[in-house]
Amino acid sequence: MKFKIALLAGDGIGPEVIDQAVKVSDAVAKKFGHEITWKPALTGAAAIDAVGEPYPDETHDICTASDAVLFGAIGHPKYDNDPSAPVRPEQGLLKMRKKLGLFANVRPTFTFPSLLDKSPLKQERIEGTDLVFLRELTGGIYFGEKGRRDGGETAYDNCVYTREEVQRLAKKGFELAMTRSKKLCCVDKANVLETSRLWRETVQAMEKDYPEVEVSYEFVDAVAMRLVQWPNSYDVLITENLFGDILTDEASVISGSMGLMPSASMGSDIALFEPIHGSYPQATGLNIANPMATVLSAAMMFETAFNLPEEGKAIREAVNKALAEGFVTEDLADGGKSYGTKEVGDYLAANI
Ligand code: IPM
Ligand code: MN
């Protein structure tokens, strides 16, 4: 098959980890007889520096003309401590999600048998953990009306959801649950928030369409707690934008390193694949960042965007082998022998 993939490396370690995912994807393409054309495009602080805009129209056009988008990371410290910056790299990411209609963010948390001792949690607590968050990505407090009043002394961010936005996300959640263990948890704060009551009411009304799925409703604060107590008790979790942002960072370290978990963002059309971690500015250019989350995002791309499970499996097996043999970056090396970003990428590609 022939694919055109938009390549948005972004900021910080983005370009370094993206290079490894390209290398690994090209190795997969060669092995299975596919042809990939990469279409690099600017985004984030890199795009602000070059053209004054974090998600330029040209980048959007490249994305819509592609079969999938592979994304690195966004964010630069020069903006983090400047609340008055007129344009911020993160705005590019939000604009991209909105314009590409990427309303469902799939963020898995799973463990690797060879890394059980690397988790901040006790081994018996995490064994068998294999859960997936479906985070709503284009609504809620991220996109509601925001501003200042009283001469700047009061600030507000509105959280708004429509029933239709909840339904389309929940539908993906029910469908995903049907392909897994048929357990779905709706995470909300319905004891306090009106938007959460709309979520709960909407999901409850959909239960009859999926009689085999066992649905639980849990408050977000309790989920935050249970995630570190019994992560293996969850399967598919659906939640709104901000709760999902926070809980998926919490969940992502259960596997042992933030540099391991991939993600996919989907809507009705094109899908985007990116690591859960951020741009890790301190490591930029040092060849120390763990490329595995981005490489596993490429695996998700083959599996879900191109419907090629064998190709995805080849990548996952190469990653498992590298982990089992200790061919890892310093975040996983426990002070022992470690390898560079590029060397890990080379190793993975060679093993495919
Ligand atoms: C994420 C990030 C973004 C978010 C930021 C960079 C805008 O934290 O993808 O989780 O909050 O959604
Ligand atoms: Mn986040």
UniProtKB/TrEMBL annotation:
Pathway: Amino-acid biosynthesis; L-leucine biosynthesis; L-leucine from 3-methyl-2-oxobutanoate: step 3/4
Record's cofactor remark: Binds 1 Mg(2+) or Mn(2+) ion per subunit.
Alphabetized GO MF terms: 3-isopropylmalate dehydrogenase activity; magnesium ion binding; NAD binding
Cofactors that this protein relies on: Mn(2+); Mg(2+)
Residues at the site labelled Important for catalysis: 142, 189
GO biological process: L-leucine biosynthetic process
Binding positions (Mg(2+)): 221, 245, 249
Enzyme Commission number(s) from the entry: 1.1.1.85
A GO CC annotation given for this chain: cytosol
Residues the record lists as binding substrate: 97, 107, 135, 221
Main enzyme class: oxidoreductase
Pfam families xref list: Iso_dh
Subunit comment: Homodimer.
HAMAP family: LeuB_type1
Family: Belongs to the isocitrate and isopropylmalate dehydrogenases family. LeuB type 1 subfamily.
Descriptive protein name: 3-isopropylmalate dehydrogenase
Species in which this protein is naturally found: Pseudotamlana haliotis
